[in-house]
Design goal:
One of its GO terms (molecular function) is DNA binding. Pfam families: HTH_20 (PF12840). Keywords: DNA-binding. The structure is a single chain. With 115 residues, the protein is mostly helical. It contains 5 helices and 2 strands; from the N terminus they run ααααββα. α1 packs across α5. The longest helix has 31 residues. 13% of the residues are buried.
């Protein structure tokens, strides 16, 4: 497993089961059994997914007597969003420059769009 935060986050998000677990936790805390309910996999497999999410900092586990609720931690997602936004700004700038160049080379071409 990669050892930098961004790589751990992307690796954890690469699995659809883990993304589904995070989606469920976005609604509020849940136990391992509650998280396992919609999946046709063992509790052991769910626990492994939770360990990956926990190592990536995407979830934390509390302790309330025998109940160990899992909760979503958003800081790693904020870091991913920031990283993506940096590149989005670069891509948009490049598309804007390309559009200006196309308009310069082909004046009168209206309605050029990018998205």
């Amino acid at each position: 497993m990669p050892d930098d935060e961004l790589s751990r986050t992307f690796a954890a998000l690469a699995d659809p089961t883990r993304r589904a677990i995070l989606a469920r936790l976005s609604e509020g805390e849940a136990t391992v059994n509650e998280l396992a309910e919609p999946f046709d996999i063992s509790l052991q497999a769910i626990s492994k997914h939770l360990k990956v999410l926990e190592r990536a900092g995407l979830i934390s586990r509390g302790r309330d007597a025998q109940w160990r609720p899992c909760r979503l931690e958003t800081a790693p997602l904020d870091a991913v969003s920031h990283w993506i936004d940096r590149y989005r700004e670069r891509w948009n700038d490049r598309f804007d420059r390309l559009e200006r160049e196309i308009r310069r080379v082909h004046p009168g071409k209206e309605g050029l769009e990018h998205g």
